[in-house]
Amino acid sequence: MAKDIEFADDAPAFAHSQQFQDIKNAAHEHLLTRIEELGAEFGRWSRNAINQFVDLEMDSFVRMRRIPINESEVRLIAEALTKELAGFGPIEDLLNDPAVEDILINGYNDVYVSRHGILTKIQVRFADNAHLLRIVRRILAPIGRRLDESNPMVDARLPDGGRVNVVIEPLSIDGPIVSIRKFRKDPLRPDDLLGNGTYNPEIGALLEAAVQARCNVLVSGGTSSGKTSLLNALAFHIPEIERVVTIEDTAELSLNHPHVVRLESRPGGFDGSGLVTIRDLLRNTLRMRPDRIIVGEVRGGEVLEMLQAMNTGHDGSMGTVHASSPRECLYRLEMLAGFAGFQGTESSLRRQIANAIDFIVQIGRLSNGRRRILSITEVTGLSDNIIATQELYRYEPVTTPEGEEIDQWESLGIHPHSPKLARFRQVLGESSAVAGGFGGGFGGNGPGFGGGFNV
Question: Is residue 447 part of a domain?
Answer without folding.
Answer: no
